[in-house]
Specification:
259 residues, 6-stranded parallel β-sheet, alpha/beta, single chain, two-stranded parallel ribbon
Length: 259
């Protein structure tokens, strides 16, 4: 039986792992920021001392892409500086770190899906902060998995693209959805299953991509959501607004690693 700690447990992935862990034979501990603040190195050390965790799944992150442009220091504090603290603590306690990252570490200039071997070049502060966290792990962590995922959504949990489309359509609101950003939308249930399979199979440590396989725009995803719920609201495709935040226009991710 393995002992597994999950940080950022109140988010989409943490909550989904908690639901799936009910049928697991392993021992899982789920912590939100109130119980386990990854920005506090002393609190991390006290919490991990003599707990004998085998894995720490870090779901905690600063994910607001727009606000990160004005709050770059805060994004780095969570996505980089806190990761540095977590790496040190996991090394001290012989814990394998599983860290969740993003397709936004790429610039979107490629014409085919990004693989683990492709060069990174983030366009915005969110992507830059996440890449710094990745680099810290790759340079200093003794045992780690980095999982890059793409356009994560949940059908049942929290506020995300899926729930926003449903809520707006049920209220009869007009839907104007970006059609010039292309990615691989990923159901959080599938990502959680991948994380659990990784712990079960224990493939070689390192960097992995995981997403669902369909390549589409946000507009395409909105149409699929409406079709799934037999809703016929009109959806108007629009170009990405000039919001001051540059995003990769093409960021599907695939993996050339199988296990």
């Amino acid at each position: 039986m393995k002992k597994i700690l999950v940080t950022g447990a109140k988010g989409q992935l943490g909550s989904t792992l908690k639901e799936k862990a009910r049928s697991s034979k392993d021992h899982w501990v789920f912590c939100g920021r109130d119980e386990f603040d990854i920005t506090d190195s002393k609190a991390i050390a006290v919490f991990l001392n003599n707990k004998h965790f085998d894995y720490c799944i870090n779901c905690a992150a600063y994910t607001n892409v727009v606000k990160a442009e004005q709050e770059a220091d805060q994004a780095q504090a969570i996505n980089f500086e806190a990761v540095k603290k977590l790496v040190h603590a996991c090394n001290q306690n012989q814990i394998t770190l599983i860290h969740i990252s993003t397709d936004y570490v790429f610039d979107g200039n490629k014409k085919t899906p990004y693989l683990e071997s492709d060069a990174t070049d983030p366009l915005n502060q969110y992507g830059k902060s996440k890449l710094l966290g990745e680099q810290e792990i790759q340079k200093n962590a003794r045992a780690f998995y980095i999982i890059r995922t793409s356009w994560l959504y949940s059908k049942t949990l929290g506020s995300n693209f899926y729930s926003a489309i449903l809520n707006k359509s049920k209220k009869g609101e007009a839907l104007f959805i970006v059609n010039d950003q292309i990615g691989t939308p990923t159901n959080v249930d599938h990502l959680a299953a991948f994380v659990m399979r990784l712990i079960l199979k224990e493939p070689p440590k390192g960097l992995y991509h995981f997403s669902d396989e369909q390549i589409m725009s946000w507009f395409d995803l909105a149409v699929k959501i409406l079709e799934e719920h037999q809703l016929d609201n009109p959806v108007t495709p629009i170009a990405t607004a000039e919001s001051g935040v540059i995003r990769p226009y093409y960021s599907p991710i695939f993996s050339n690693k199988k296990f």
